[in-house]
Amino acid sequence: MRLELMNTVVMAADYEKLRDWYIDALELELEQEWTGKYHYAELVKNGKLVVGIADAKEMGVTPQAMKKNATLVAQFNVDDVAAFLARIREKGGDVSFGPSYDADEDLHFGGFADIEGNPNWVVQMLALPGE
After folding, report:
1. Is the peptide bond before 99 cis (omega within 30 degrees of 0)?
2. Cα–Cα distance measured from residue 81 to residue 46, given in angstroms and rounded to the nearest whole number
């Protein structure tokens, strides 16, 4: 049995607004969008699927009131955590922590929430494990 993680899907209270925020704030491109019975967008970076955005109500989901307690988060790898988090703030997102640095792992990292409060992590590996 083959198993591959495709991407993370974010359930949006306001589908169009959240889709547009991810496109703008994370500099993603709209690869495909379904707008029939269900609204769903696939957002890509450099031709690779990064995140999906779906309409929560159409999927029968009630967005959590306490998203900071979410047990599943998307994690993004970037070239510059500090610059990325500054952009998130500029675009109306909330930086929950960071930029932080772990010298033992040679890792910069941080956390942010999108405009609907969905939590995400961001990392910048300065050296790959074992190098």
Report:
1. yes
2. 19
pTM: 0.88
Return the domain boundaries, the chain.
6-59, 72-131
For 5, 27, 32, the CA distances from 67, given in Å and listed in that order, are 22, 23, 27
Q: Would you say 68 and 96 are in contact if contact means Cβ atoms under 8 Å apart?
A: yes
Looking at the structure, give the CATH architecture of the domain made up of residues 72-131. Answer: Roll (3.10)
Q: Summarize pLDDT for 21-77 with one digit per residue, the tens.
A: 999 999 999 999 999 999 999 999 999 999 999 999 999 988 776 566 677 889 999
The two three-digit tokens of residue 81, written as one number: 């955590």
